[in-house]
From TrEMBL, chain A:
GO terms for biological process: inositol phosphoceramide metabolic process. Signal peptide: none annotated. The lineage of its organism: Eukaryota, Fungi, Dikarya, Ascomycota, Saccharomycotina. GO terms for cellular component: Golgi membrane; inositol phosphoceramide synthase complex. This is Kei1 protein. It comes from Maudiozyma humilis. InterPro entries: Kei1. It holds the Pfam family Kei1.
UniProtKB/TrEMBL annotation, chain B:
Keywords: Membrane, Transmembrane, Transmembrane helix. This is Inositol phosphorylceramide synthase. It comes from the Eukaryota. InterPro entries: Aur1/Ipt1 (IPR026841), IPC_Synthase-Related (IPR052185), PAP2/HPO (IPR000326). One of its GO terms (cellular component) is membrane.
Length: 215, 417
Protein backbone atom coordinates (compact mmCIF):
# COMPACT_ATOMS: atom_id res chain seq x y z
CA UNK A 1 0.00 0.00 0.00
CA UNK A 2 1.23 3.47 -0.79
CA UNK A 3 2.70 5.31 2.16
CA UNK A 4 1.62 8.90 2.48
CA UNK A 5 4.10 9.82 5.19
CA UNK A 6 6.43 11.52 2.74
CA UNK A 7 3.62 13.62 1.26
CA UNK A 8 3.72 17.30 2.15
CA UNK A 9 0.38 17.89 3.92
CA UNK A 10 -0.88 21.40 4.62
CA UNK A 11 0.37 22.55 8.03
CA UNK A 12 -2.13 25.39 8.31
CA UNK A 13 -5.61 26.11 6.99
CA UNK A 14 -5.63 28.53 4.02
CA UNK A 15 -2.07 29.35 4.95
CA UNK A 16 -2.63 31.00 8.33
CA UNK A 17 -5.13 29.20 10.59
CA UNK A 18 -4.13 26.41 12.99
CA UNK A 19 -5.23 22.92 12.02
CA UNK A 20 -7.72 22.38 14.84
CA UNK A 21 -9.79 25.37 13.70
CA UNK A 22 -9.62 23.99 10.17
CA UNK A 23 -10.83 20.60 11.34
CA UNK A 24 -13.70 22.24 13.22
CA UNK A 25 -14.76 24.12 10.09
CA UNK A 26 -14.30 21.08 7.84
CA UNK A 27 -16.31 18.81 10.11
CA UNK A 28 -19.02 21.45 10.64
CA UNK A 29 -19.52 21.99 6.90
CA UNK A 30 -19.49 18.25 6.22
CA UNK A 31 -21.97 17.54 9.01
CA UNK A 32 -24.38 20.13 7.58
CA UNK A 33 -24.16 18.43 4.20
CA UNK A 34 -24.56 14.95 5.58
CA UNK A 35 -27.94 15.91 7.06
CA UNK A 36 -29.20 15.46 3.50
CA UNK A 37 -29.28 11.73 4.24
CA UNK A 38 -31.81 12.17 7.02
CA UNK A 39 -34.13 14.27 4.85
CA UNK A 40 -33.62 12.05 1.82
CA UNK A 41 -34.54 8.89 3.66
CA UNK A 42 -37.84 10.51 4.64
CA UNK A 43 -38.93 9.62 1.10
CA UNK A 44 -39.89 6.24 2.58
CA UNK A 45 -42.59 8.00 4.63
CA UNK A 46 -43.67 10.67 2.16
CA UNK A 47 -44.23 8.19 -0.66
CA UNK A 48 -41.71 9.74 -3.04
CA UNK A 49 -40.03 7.12 -5.24
CA UNK A 50 -36.55 6.23 -4.05
CA UNK A 51 -34.16 4.24 -6.19
CA UNK A 52 -31.43 1.93 -4.92
CA UNK A 53 -28.50 4.29 -5.41
CA UNK A 54 -30.30 7.13 -3.62
CA UNK A 55 -31.07 4.83 -0.70
CA UNK A 56 -27.42 3.76 -0.46
CA UNK A 57 -26.18 7.34 -0.61
CA UNK A 58 -28.65 8.50 2.09
CA UNK A 59 -27.83 5.63 4.45
CA UNK A 60 -24.12 6.22 3.92
CA UNK A 61 -24.66 9.92 4.68
CA UNK A 62 -26.38 9.07 7.96
CA UNK A 63 -23.55 6.71 8.98
CA UNK A 64 -20.85 9.27 8.19
CA UNK A 65 -22.89 11.94 9.98
CA UNK A 66 -22.63 9.90 13.19
CA UNK A 67 -18.89 9.35 12.69
CA UNK A 68 -18.18 13.04 12.07
CA UNK A 69 -20.32 14.30 14.95
CA UNK A 70 -17.99 12.52 17.40
CA UNK A 71 -15.17 14.75 16.26
CA UNK A 72 -17.05 17.95 17.08
CA UNK A 73 -17.05 17.04 20.75
CA UNK A 74 -13.31 16.43 20.78
CA UNK A 75 -11.85 19.34 18.85
CA UNK A 76 -9.98 20.81 21.79
CA UNK A 77 -9.08 17.41 23.28
CA UNK A 78 -8.69 15.14 20.28
CA UNK A 79 -8.07 11.40 20.51
CA UNK A 80 -6.32 9.40 17.86
CA UNK A 81 -8.94 6.65 17.77
CA UNK A 82 -11.80 9.00 16.91
CA UNK A 83 -9.91 11.10 14.41
CA UNK A 84 -8.39 8.08 12.69
CA UNK A 85 -11.90 6.74 12.22
CA UNK A 86 -13.07 10.11 10.94
CA UNK A 87 -10.17 10.29 8.48
CA UNK A 88 -10.76 6.78 7.17
CA UNK A 89 -14.49 7.39 6.73
CA UNK A 90 -13.86 10.80 5.20
CA UNK A 91 -11.44 9.31 2.67
CA UNK A 92 -13.87 6.54 1.72
CA UNK A 93 -16.56 9.21 1.62
CA UNK A 94 -14.50 11.30 -0.82
CA UNK A 95 -14.20 8.36 -3.21
CA UNK A 96 -17.90 7.54 -2.86
CA UNK A 97 -18.85 11.20 -3.34
CA UNK A 98 -16.95 11.25 -6.63
CA UNK A 99 -18.78 8.11 -7.69
CA UNK A 100 -22.22 9.40 -6.58
CA UNK A 101 -21.52 12.73 -8.26
CA UNK A 102 -20.86 10.97 -11.56
CA UNK A 103 -23.87 8.70 -11.13
CA UNK A 104 -26.33 11.46 -10.23
CA UNK A 105 -24.94 13.80 -12.89
CA UNK A 106 -25.88 11.14 -15.39
CA UNK A 107 -29.34 10.80 -13.76
CA UNK A 108 -29.95 14.55 -13.92
CA UNK A 109 -28.92 15.02 -17.53
CA UNK A 110 -30.96 12.02 -18.62
CA UNK A 111 -34.01 13.42 -16.80
CA UNK A 112 -33.41 16.89 -18.20
CA UNK A 113 -33.13 15.60 -21.76
CA UNK A 114 -36.44 13.75 -21.28
CA UNK A 115 -38.20 16.83 -19.88
CA UNK A 116 -36.79 19.01 -22.68
CA UNK A 117 -38.39 16.75 -25.25
CA UNK A 118 -41.74 16.80 -23.51
CA UNK A 119 -41.45 20.58 -23.03
CA UNK A 120 -40.85 21.25 -26.73
CA UNK A 121 -44.40 22.54 -27.08
CA UNK A 122 -43.70 25.43 -24.70
CA UNK A 123 -40.96 26.80 -26.94
CA UNK A 124 -43.45 28.84 -28.92
CA UNK A 125 -44.78 30.58 -25.79
CA UNK A 126 -41.21 31.43 -24.85
CA UNK A 127 -40.62 33.45 -27.99
CA UNK A 128 -43.89 35.33 -27.46
CA UNK A 129 -42.43 37.05 -24.40
CA UNK A 130 -40.21 39.04 -26.70
CA UNK A 131 -36.47 39.39 -27.05
CA UNK A 132 -35.92 41.55 -23.98
CA UNK A 133 -37.66 39.28 -21.51
CA UNK A 134 -36.16 36.16 -23.01
CA UNK A 135 -32.69 37.57 -22.40
CA UNK A 136 -33.44 37.90 -18.67
CA UNK A 137 -33.39 34.14 -18.28
CA UNK A 138 -30.05 32.36 -18.30
CA UNK A 139 -28.90 30.69 -21.50
CA UNK A 140 -28.39 26.92 -21.65
CA UNK A 141 -24.62 27.44 -21.71
CA UNK A 142 -24.74 29.64 -18.60
CA UNK A 143 -26.92 27.15 -16.72
CA UNK A 144 -24.64 24.29 -17.69
CA UNK A 145 -21.48 26.25 -16.90
CA UNK A 146 -22.70 27.29 -13.44
CA UNK A 147 -23.80 23.73 -12.63
CA UNK A 148 -20.40 22.37 -13.58
CA UNK A 149 -18.57 25.17 -11.77
CA UNK A 150 -20.41 24.61 -8.49
CA UNK A 151 -19.98 20.84 -8.73
CA UNK A 152 -16.25 21.17 -9.37
CA UNK A 153 -15.77 23.74 -6.61
CA UNK A 154 -17.43 21.44 -4.07
CA UNK A 155 -15.30 18.50 -5.19
CA UNK A 156 -12.07 20.49 -5.03
CA UNK A 157 -12.98 21.75 -1.55
CA UNK A 158 -13.76 18.22 -0.49
CA UNK A 159 -10.36 17.03 -1.61
CA UNK A 160 -8.63 19.90 0.21
CA UNK A 161 -10.66 19.15 3.36
CA UNK A 162 -9.55 15.52 3.11
CA UNK A 163 -5.92 16.63 3.13
CA UNK A 164 -6.56 18.93 6.08
CA UNK A 165 -7.96 16.01 8.08
CA UNK A 166 -5.06 13.77 7.05
CA UNK A 167 -2.63 16.44 8.13
CA UNK A 168 -4.35 16.76 11.51
CA UNK A 169 -4.22 12.99 12.11
CA UNK A 170 -0.57 12.94 11.03
CA UNK A 171 0.21 15.62 13.60
CA UNK A 172 -1.66 13.65 16.26
CA UNK A 173 0.33 10.53 15.36
CA UNK A 174 3.64 12.31 15.67
CA UNK A 175 2.77 13.94 18.99
CA UNK A 176 3.47 11.71 22.02
CA UNK A 177 0.73 13.53 23.93
CA UNK A 178 -1.89 11.59 21.96
CA UNK A 179 -0.32 8.16 22.16
CA UNK A 180 -2.83 5.39 22.67
CA UNK A 181 -2.77 3.04 25.59
CA UNK A 182 -4.66 0.15 24.05
CA UNK A 183 -5.18 -1.72 27.32
CA UNK A 184 -7.47 1.05 28.54
CA UNK A 185 -9.75 0.37 25.65
CA UNK A 186 -9.52 -3.41 25.81
CA UNK A 187 -10.39 -3.67 29.51
CA UNK A 188 -13.29 -1.37 29.08
CA UNK A 189 -14.84 -3.37 26.30
CA UNK A 190 -15.95 -6.56 28.04
CA UNK A 191 -19.20 -5.26 29.46
CA UNK A 192 -20.13 -3.02 26.56
CA UNK A 193 -22.99 -3.79 24.17
CA UNK A 194 -22.13 -5.35 20.83
CA UNK A 195 -22.44 -2.20 18.73
CA UNK A 196 -20.00 -0.35 21.01
CA UNK A 197 -17.48 -3.15 20.82
CA UNK A 198 -17.85 -3.17 17.07
CA UNK A 199 -17.50 0.61 16.95
CA UNK A 200 -14.28 0.60 18.96
CA UNK A 201 -12.94 -2.26 16.87
CA UNK A 202 -13.63 -0.13 13.81
CA UNK A 203 -11.78 2.78 15.41
CA UNK A 204 -8.80 0.58 16.23
CA UNK A 205 -8.62 -0.73 12.68
CA UNK A 206 -8.81 2.81 11.37
CA UNK A 207 -6.05 3.82 13.74
CA UNK A 208 -3.80 0.99 12.56
CA UNK A 209 -4.47 1.92 8.94
CA UNK A 210 -3.68 5.58 9.59
CA UNK A 211 -0.48 4.65 11.40
CA UNK A 212 0.65 2.48 8.55
CA UNK A 213 -0.10 5.14 5.97
CA UNK A 214 0.83 8.34 7.75
CA UNK A 215 3.23 7.78 10.63
CA UNK B 1 -39.38 45.84 41.36
CA UNK B 2 -35.85 47.13 41.96
CA UNK B 3 -35.49 44.57 44.76
CA UNK B 4 -36.43 41.82 42.34
CA UNK B 5 -33.96 43.02 39.73
CA UNK B 6 -31.23 43.28 42.31
CA UNK B 7 -31.90 39.82 43.72
CA UNK B 8 -31.94 38.18 40.30
CA UNK B 9 -29.39 40.03 38.24
CA UNK B 10 -27.11 42.13 40.39
CA UNK B 11 -26.62 40.01 43.52
CA UNK B 12 -23.58 38.16 42.05
CA UNK B 13 -22.01 41.28 40.66
CA UNK B 14 -18.30 41.34 41.50
CA UNK B 15 -17.21 44.39 43.47
CA UNK B 16 -15.85 47.23 41.32
CA UNK B 17 -16.72 45.35 38.15
CA UNK B 18 -17.19 47.77 35.28
CA UNK B 19 -17.33 45.40 32.31
CA UNK B 20 -21.11 45.12 32.26
CA UNK B 21 -21.75 48.86 32.52
CA UNK B 22 -23.37 50.73 29.67
CA UNK B 23 -22.51 54.13 28.33
CA UNK B 24 -24.94 56.78 29.62
CA UNK B 25 -23.36 59.96 28.26
CA UNK B 26 -25.00 62.20 25.63
CA UNK B 27 -21.84 64.20 25.05
CA UNK B 28 -20.76 64.10 21.39
CA UNK B 29 -17.37 65.59 22.30
CA UNK B 30 -16.50 62.34 24.02
CA UNK B 31 -16.95 60.39 20.77
CA UNK B 32 -15.08 63.03 18.76
CA UNK B 33 -12.13 62.84 21.16
CA UNK B 34 -12.09 59.04 20.75
CA UNK B 35 -12.24 59.43 16.98
CA UNK B 36 -9.22 61.77 17.01
CA UNK B 37 -7.10 59.25 18.91
CA UNK B 38 -8.34 56.29 16.87
CA UNK B 39 -5.66 54.23 15.10
CA UNK B 40 -7.30 51.88 12.58
CA UNK B 41 -5.84 48.41 12.09
CA UNK B 42 -5.77 46.61 8.74
CA UNK B 43 -8.82 44.61 9.83
CA UNK B 44 -10.69 47.84 10.66
CA UNK B 45 -9.81 49.32 7.28
CA UNK B 46 -11.19 46.23 5.49
CA UNK B 47 -14.30 46.11 7.70
CA UNK B 48 -15.29 49.78 7.47
CA UNK B 49 -14.03 50.13 3.91
CA UNK B 50 -16.28 47.31 2.74
CA UNK B 51 -19.36 48.53 4.65
CA UNK B 52 -18.82 52.13 3.49
CA UNK B 53 -18.55 51.08 -0.15
CA UNK B 54 -21.85 49.16 0.11
CA UNK B 55 -23.49 52.14 1.83
CA UNK B 56 -22.14 54.50 -0.82
CA UNK B 57 -23.56 52.23 -3.52
CA UNK B 58 -26.95 52.22 -1.76
CA UNK B 59 -26.80 56.02 -1.41
CA UNK B 60 -26.36 56.39 -5.16
CA UNK B 61 -28.66 53.54 -6.26
CA UNK B 62 -31.66 54.05 -3.95
CA UNK B 63 -34.37 55.94 -5.88
CA UNK B 64 -35.29 58.66 -3.38
CA UNK B 65 -34.76 62.45 -3.29
CA UNK B 66 -31.10 63.27 -2.58
CA UNK B 67 -32.05 65.53 0.32
CA UNK B 68 -34.00 62.77 2.01
CA UNK B 69 -31.14 60.31 1.58
CA UNK B 70 -28.71 62.88 2.99
CA UNK B 71 -31.01 63.46 5.95
CA UNK B 72 -31.24 59.72 6.76
CA UNK B 73 -27.46 59.27 6.51
CA UNK B 74 -26.90 62.37 8.69
CA UNK B 75 -29.37 61.05 11.26
CA UNK B 76 -27.47 57.79 11.49
CA UNK B 77 -24.22 59.77 11.72
CA UNK B 78 -25.64 61.61 14.71
CA UNK B 79 -26.78 58.36 16.36
CA UNK B 80 -23.26 57.02 15.90
CA UNK B 81 -21.77 60.09 17.56
CA UNK B 82 -23.95 60.25 20.68
CA UNK B 83 -22.29 57.78 23.11
CA UNK B 84 -25.54 56.42 24.59
CA UNK B 85 -27.00 55.51 21.18
CA UNK B 86 -23.69 54.81 19.51
CA UNK B 87 -23.03 51.71 21.64
CA UNK B 88 -26.03 50.02 20.01
CA UNK B 89 -26.33 51.66 16.60
CA UNK B 90 -22.68 51.73 15.62
CA UNK B 91 -22.14 48.11 16.56
CA UNK B 92 -25.15 47.20 14.43
CA UNK B 93 -23.59 48.84 11.35
CA UNK B 94 -23.33 45.52 9.41
CA UNK B 95 -27.06 44.91 10.04
CA UNK B 96 -28.03 48.39 8.81
CA UNK B 97 -25.82 47.92 5.75
CA UNK B 98 -27.55 44.62 4.97
CA UNK B 99 -31.03 46.16 5.39
CA UNK B 100 -30.05 49.12 3.21
CA UNK B 101 -28.84 46.84 0.42
CA UNK B 102 -31.83 44.49 0.79
CA UNK B 103 -34.39 47.26 0.34
CA UNK B 104 -32.42 48.75 -2.55
CA UNK B 105 -32.33 45.35 -4.29
CA UNK B 106 -35.94 45.61 -5.42
CA UNK B 107 -35.20 48.81 -7.39
CA UNK B 108 -32.47 47.42 -9.64
CA UNK B 109 -33.62 47.53 -13.24
CA UNK B 110 -34.22 44.19 -14.94
CA UNK B 111 -31.70 45.08 -17.63
CA UNK B 112 -28.86 45.52 -15.15
CA UNK B 113 -29.52 42.26 -13.28
CA UNK B 114 -27.69 39.02 -14.05
CA UNK B 115 -29.65 36.31 -15.90
CA UNK B 116 -31.99 34.10 -13.82
CA UNK B 117 -31.01 30.46 -13.60
CA UNK B 118 -33.77 27.87 -13.30
CA UNK B 119 -31.84 24.65 -13.83
CA UNK B 120 -28.68 25.17 -11.78
CA UNK B 121 -30.19 24.58 -8.35
CA UNK B 122 -32.25 21.46 -9.14
CA UNK B 123 -29.26 20.12 -11.09
CA UNK B 124 -26.81 20.73 -8.23
CA UNK B 125 -29.34 19.30 -5.79
CA UNK B 126 -29.60 16.06 -7.77
CA UNK B 127 -25.86 15.85 -8.42
CA UNK B 128 -24.80 16.46 -4.83
CA UNK B 129 -27.71 15.03 -2.84
CA UNK B 130 -29.16 12.39 -5.13
CA UNK B 131 -32.57 13.97 -5.68
CA UNK B 132 -34.64 17.11 -5.20
CA UNK B 133 -35.10 16.92 -1.42
CA UNK B 134 -37.80 19.60 -1.52
CA UNK B 135 -39.80 17.35 -3.87
CA UNK B 136 -39.32 14.41 -1.52
CA UNK B 137 -40.63 16.32 1.49
CA UNK B 138 -43.47 18.08 -0.32
CA UNK B 139 -44.84 14.90 -1.90
CA UNK B 140 -47.59 14.44 0.66
CA UNK B 141 -49.07 17.45 2.42
CA UNK B 142 -51.72 17.89 5.09
CA UNK B 143 -52.98 20.69 7.32
CA UNK B 144 -51.04 19.55 10.36
CA UNK B 145 -47.72 19.61 8.47
CA UNK B 146 -48.69 22.95 6.95
CA UNK B 147 -49.09 24.53 10.38
CA UNK B 148 -45.96 22.77 11.64
CA UNK B 149 -43.96 24.18 8.74
CA UNK B 150 -45.49 27.64 9.00
CA UNK B 151 -44.53 28.15 12.66
CA UNK B 152 -40.74 28.40 12.18
CA UNK B 153 -40.83 29.71 8.61
CA UNK B 154 -43.55 32.30 8.79
CA UNK B 155 -43.50 33.23 12.48
CA UNK B 156 -40.35 32.42 14.48
CA UNK B 157 -37.99 33.50 11.74
CA UNK B 158 -39.08 37.13 12.00
CA UNK B 159 -39.13 37.40 15.77
CA UNK B 160 -36.21 35.14 16.70
CA UNK B 161 -33.35 37.59 15.90
CA UNK B 162 -34.75 40.11 18.40
CA UNK B 163 -35.49 37.52 21.08
CA UNK B 164 -32.01 36.01 20.67
CA UNK B 165 -30.40 39.46 20.87
CA UNK B 166 -32.31 40.32 24.06
CA UNK B 167 -31.48 37.01 25.75
CA UNK B 168 -27.82 37.21 24.72
CA UNK B 169 -27.63 40.75 26.09
CA UNK B 170 -29.03 39.81 29.50
CA UNK B 171 -27.72 36.28 30.02
CA UNK B 172 -24.57 36.27 27.86
CA UNK B 173 -21.22 37.81 28.75
CA UNK B 174 -20.83 41.56 28.12
CA UNK B 175 -19.93 42.49 24.50
CA UNK B 176 -21.45 39.30 23.06
CA UNK B 177 -24.20 41.37 21.46
CA UNK B 178 -21.57 43.23 19.43
CA UNK B 179 -20.31 39.92 18.10
CA UNK B 180 -23.87 38.80 17.32
CA UNK B 181 -24.63 42.00 15.40
CA UNK B 182 -21.38 41.65 13.47
CA UNK B 183 -21.90 38.00 12.53
CA UNK B 184 -25.64 38.31 11.85
CA UNK B 185 -25.18 41.46 9.75
CA UNK B 186 -22.32 40.12 7.66
CA UNK B 187 -24.03 36.78 7.07
CA UNK B 188 -27.14 38.50 5.71
CA UNK B 189 -25.10 41.04 3.77
CA UNK B 190 -23.08 38.34 1.99
CA UNK B 191 -26.31 36.41 1.45
CA UNK B 192 -28.09 39.33 -0.23
CA UNK B 193 -25.03 40.12 -2.38
CA UNK B 194 -24.95 36.47 -3.55
CA UNK B 195 -28.70 36.48 -4.24
CA UNK B 196 -28.26 39.56 -6.43
CA UNK B 197 -25.21 38.28 -8.28
CA UNK B 198 -26.64 34.81 -8.78
CA UNK B 199 -30.45 34.98 -9.14
CA UNK B 200 -31.93 31.49 -9.00
CA UNK B 201 -35.50 30.18 -9.06
CA UNK B 202 -36.89 28.41 -5.95
CA UNK B 203 -38.52 24.93 -6.05
CA UNK B 204 -42.05 26.31 -6.53
CA UNK B 205 -40.90 27.73 -9.86
CA UNK B 206 -40.07 24.25 -11.17
CA UNK B 207 -43.45 23.00 -9.97
CA UNK B 208 -45.28 25.87 -11.71
CA UNK B 209 -43.23 26.44 -14.86
CA UNK B 210 -40.98 23.40 -15.20
CA UNK B 211 -37.50 24.21 -16.45
CA UNK B 212 -38.64 26.99 -18.80
CA UNK B 213 -36.63 30.19 -18.60
CA UNK B 214 -37.71 32.99 -16.25
CA UNK B 215 -37.88 36.77 -16.48
CA UNK B 216 -38.07 39.59 -13.95
CA UNK B 217 -41.64 40.47 -14.87
CA UNK B 218 -42.92 37.29 -13.26
CA UNK B 219 -44.79 37.33 -9.98
CA UNK B 220 -43.54 35.37 -7.00
CA UNK B 221 -45.46 32.55 -5.41
CA UNK B 222 -46.08 31.79 -1.74
CA UNK B 223 -45.42 28.10 -2.46
CA UNK B 224 -46.81 25.97 0.36
CA UNK B 225 -47.74 29.07 2.37
CA UNK B 226 -50.75 29.53 0.07
CA UNK B 227 -52.30 26.63 2.00
CA UNK B 228 -51.81 28.59 5.23
CA UNK B 229 -53.59 31.60 3.71
CA UNK B 230 -56.45 29.32 2.75
CA UNK B 231 -56.50 27.60 6.11
CA UNK B 232 -56.49 30.80 8.15
CA UNK B 233 -58.70 32.73 5.66
CA UNK B 234 -56.05 35.39 5.17
CA UNK B 235 -54.16 36.74 2.16
CA UNK B 236 -50.89 37.81 3.75
CA UNK B 237 -48.46 35.33 2.21
CA UNK B 238 -50.04 35.16 -1.26
CA UNK B 239 -49.93 38.94 -1.51
CA UNK B 240 -46.54 39.31 0.15
CA UNK B 241 -44.72 36.70 -1.91
CA UNK B 242 -46.45 37.61 -5.21
CA UNK B 243 -44.99 41.11 -4.97
CA UNK B 244 -41.74 40.14 -3.30
CA UNK B 245 -38.65 42.10 -4.29
CA UNK B 246 -36.37 39.10 -4.36
CA UNK B 247 -38.42 36.49 -6.22
CA UNK B 248 -35.34 34.76 -7.55
CA UNK B 249 -33.28 35.01 -4.39
CA UNK B 250 -33.34 31.33 -3.48
CA UNK B 251 -29.57 30.92 -3.20
CA UNK B 252 -28.58 31.08 -0.36
CA UNK B 253 -31.45 30.64 2.09
CA UNK B 254 -31.27 33.40 4.68
CA UNK B 255 -33.97 31.61 6.67
CA UNK B 256 -31.45 28.82 7.13
CA UNK B 257 -28.59 31.27 7.68
CA UNK B 258 -30.46 33.17 10.41
CA UNK B 259 -31.66 30.03 12.19
CA UNK B 260 -28.14 28.58 12.14
CA UNK B 261 -26.62 31.80 13.43
CA UNK B 262 -29.16 31.99 16.26
CA UNK B 263 -28.57 28.34 17.15
CA UNK B 264 -24.78 28.79 17.09
CA UNK B 265 -24.88 31.80 19.39
CA UNK B 266 -27.30 30.14 21.78
CA UNK B 267 -25.22 26.93 21.78
CA UNK B 268 -22.17 29.04 22.54
CA UNK B 269 -23.85 30.70 25.52
CA UNK B 270 -26.00 27.82 26.76
CA UNK B 271 -24.19 24.62 25.72
CA UNK B 272 -26.48 22.39 27.76
CA UNK B 273 -29.45 23.28 25.58
CA UNK B 274 -27.61 22.58 22.33
CA UNK B 275 -29.90 19.67 21.25
CA UNK B 276 -32.86 22.04 21.41
CA UNK B 277 -31.19 24.56 19.10
CA UNK B 278 -30.09 21.86 16.67
CA UNK B 279 -33.67 20.58 16.61
CA UNK B 280 -34.91 24.09 15.77
CA UNK B 281 -32.54 24.35 12.78
CA UNK B 282 -33.60 20.90 11.54
CA UNK B 283 -37.26 21.89 11.93
CA UNK B 284 -36.73 25.09 9.94
CA UNK B 285 -34.79 23.24 7.23
CA UNK B 286 -37.63 20.78 6.86
CA UNK B 287 -40.23 23.56 6.71
CA UNK B 288 -38.42 25.55 3.98
CA UNK B 289 -38.22 22.45 1.79
CA UNK B 290 -41.74 21.31 2.63
CA UNK B 291 -43.13 24.73 1.69
CA UNK B 292 -41.15 24.54 -1.60
CA UNK B 293 -39.29 27.76 -0.88
CA UNK B 294 -35.76 26.37 -0.96
CA UNK B 295 -33.65 23.53 -2.23
CA UNK B 296 -31.42 21.75 0.25
CA UNK B 297 -28.36 23.26 -1.42
CA UNK B 298 -29.71 26.77 -0.59
CA UNK B 299 -30.04 25.78 3.04
CA UNK B 300 -26.49 24.45 3.00
CA UNK B 301 -24.99 27.64 1.62
CA UNK B 302 -26.94 29.68 4.20
CA UNK B 303 -25.79 27.49 7.07
CA UNK B 304 -22.20 27.19 5.88
CA UNK B 305 -22.04 30.98 5.49
CA UNK B 306 -23.36 31.37 9.04
CA UNK B 307 -21.04 28.75 10.45
CA UNK B 308 -17.93 30.22 8.82
CA UNK B 309 -18.75 33.77 9.91
CA UNK B 310 -19.64 32.55 13.41
CA UNK B 311 -16.31 30.72 13.75
CA UNK B 312 -14.44 33.82 12.61
CA UNK B 313 -16.38 35.97 15.09
CA UNK B 314 -15.92 33.45 17.86
CA UNK B 315 -12.15 33.31 17.52
CA UNK B 316 -11.61 37.01 16.98
CA UNK B 317 -14.42 38.93 18.74
CA UNK B 318 -16.47 36.90 21.19
CA UNK B 319 -15.90 36.93 24.94
CA UNK B 320 -15.40 33.55 26.60
CA UNK B 321 -18.57 32.25 28.28
CA UNK B 322 -18.50 31.08 31.87
CA UNK B 323 -21.47 28.71 32.21
CA UNK B 324 -21.38 29.02 36.00
CA UNK B 325 -22.28 32.69 35.81
CA UNK B 326 -25.92 33.71 35.59
CA UNK B 327 -26.04 36.92 33.57
CA UNK B 328 -23.97 39.76 32.13
CA UNK B 329 -23.73 41.51 35.50
CA UNK B 330 -22.09 38.44 37.07
CA UNK B 331 -18.95 38.87 34.94
CA UNK B 332 -15.92 40.49 36.55
CA UNK B 333 -13.76 40.49 33.44
CA UNK B 334 -13.99 39.77 29.72
CA UNK B 335 -11.69 37.12 28.35
CA UNK B 336 -11.07 36.41 24.69
CA UNK B 337 -10.37 32.99 23.23
CA UNK B 338 -6.65 32.34 22.92
CA UNK B 339 -6.12 30.51 19.63
CA UNK B 340 -2.49 29.54 20.25
CA UNK B 341 -2.97 28.50 23.87
CA UNK B 342 -5.96 26.29 23.09
CA UNK B 343 -4.30 24.52 20.16
CA UNK B 344 -4.24 20.83 21.10
CA UNK B 345 -1.27 20.35 18.79
CA UNK B 346 0.75 23.15 20.33
CA UNK B 347 3.97 22.06 21.93
CA UNK B 348 5.28 23.65 25.07
CA UNK B 349 9.06 23.24 24.90
CA UNK B 350 9.18 22.96 28.69
CA UNK B 351 6.92 19.88 28.67
CA UNK B 352 8.99 16.74 28.26
CA UNK B 353 5.99 14.96 26.71
CA UNK B 354 6.30 17.26 23.76
CA UNK B 355 9.83 16.44 22.77
CA UNK B 356 9.41 15.64 19.07
CA UNK B 357 10.01 11.98 18.30
CA UNK B 358 12.31 12.77 15.44
CA UNK B 359 14.78 14.56 17.69
CA UNK B 360 15.10 11.64 20.10
CA UNK B 361 18.26 9.68 19.79
CA UNK B 362 17.04 6.10 20.10
CA UNK B 363 20.28 4.48 19.01
CA UNK B 364 22.35 5.39 22.05
CA UNK B 365 20.20 5.24 25.16
CA UNK B 366 22.05 6.36 28.24
CA UNK B 367 21.35 4.61 31.55
CA UNK B 368 19.32 6.59 34.05
CA UNK B 369 21.39 8.64 36.37
CA UNK B 370 20.40 9.85 39.82
CA UNK B 371 17.24 11.86 40.10
CA UNK B 372 17.91 15.47 39.64
CA UNK B 373 15.97 18.51 38.50
CA UNK B 374 18.52 19.28 35.88
CA UNK B 375 17.03 19.50 32.37
CA UNK B 376 19.81 17.48 30.78
CA UNK B 377 19.13 14.64 33.13
CA UNK B 378 15.45 14.66 32.23
CA UNK B 379 16.33 14.24 28.57
CA UNK B 380 18.61 11.29 29.22
CA UNK B 381 16.14 9.73 31.64
CA UNK B 382 13.34 10.03 29.12
CA UNK B 383 15.19 7.71 26.78
CA UNK B 384 15.73 5.02 29.39
CA UNK B 385 12.49 2.97 28.93
CA UNK B 386 13.74 2.25 25.46
CA UNK B 387 15.35 -1.00 26.66
CA UNK B 388 12.08 -2.33 28.02
CA UNK B 389 9.83 -1.14 25.25
CA UNK B 390 11.93 -2.80 22.60
CA UNK B 391 11.64 -6.26 24.13
CA UNK B 392 8.88 -8.38 22.68
CA UNK B 393 8.64 -10.83 25.59
CA UNK B 394 6.70 -10.19 28.81
CA UNK B 395 5.95 -6.66 27.73
CA UNK B 396 3.49 -6.03 30.52
CA UNK B 397 4.55 -2.44 30.76
CA UNK B 398 4.20 -1.86 27.06
CA UNK B 399 0.55 -1.51 26.25
CA UNK B 400 1.00 -0.05 22.80
CA UNK B 401 0.59 -3.41 21.14
CA UNK B 402 0.98 -2.37 17.60
CA UNK B 403 3.99 -0.25 18.33
CA UNK B 404 6.15 -3.10 19.50
CA UNK B 405 9.35 -3.65 17.63
CA UNK B 406 9.58 -0.01 16.68
CA UNK B 407 10.83 3.08 18.33
CA UNK B 408 7.69 3.86 20.27
CA UNK B 409 6.48 7.26 21.29
CA UNK B 410 6.33 5.85 24.82
CA UNK B 411 10.08 5.88 24.77
CA UNK B 412 10.06 9.60 25.28
CA UNK B 413 7.76 9.45 28.30
CA UNK B 414 9.61 9.99 31.51
CA UNK B 415 9.38 7.23 34.11
CA UNK B 416 9.79 8.16 37.68
CA UNK B 417 8.80 4.88 39.28
Amino acid sequence: MMRLSAFQFPKTFLGFLPLYIAVEIVLGITIFNKCSGVYGILAIFTGHPLDFMQGVSYLWSILTLIVYVQGMYEILKPTLLTFSQILVFYSIDTVLTCFFTLWFTNVWFTEEAASDQSGAATASTKSKRGEDRASQGATEAYEYGMTMLITWVTLVFRLYFNFILASFVKELLSNPKFMIDQDDVAQDLKNKPLYKRWWIKCQKQSYKLCRRMLA
Amino acid sequence: MSGFIYRWFLADRPANSKVSELETSWDIRQSLAKLRNYQPTTKDVCHYGFLCSVLLFVFVAFPAPWLLKLFVYALFGLLFLIPITSQFFFNALPIFTWLALYFTSSYFSAGSRPPITVKVLPAIETILYGDNLSDILATSTNSFYDILAWIPYGLFHFGAPFVVAAILFVFGPPTILQGYAFAFGYMNLFGVITQNIFPAAPPWYKIMYGLNSAHYGMHGSPGGLARIDKLLHINIYTQGFSNSSVIFGAFPSLHSGCATMEALFFSYCFPRLRPLFIAYVCWLWWSTMYLTHHYFVDLMLGSVLSYTIFQYTRYTHLPVVDTDLFCRWSYGAIEKFNIAKNDPLSTEPSDVENVPLTTMNFATPTPPSELSDDDDVVASRSASPYIFDRTTSSATSNTSLDLQGEATPRAVKPRFD
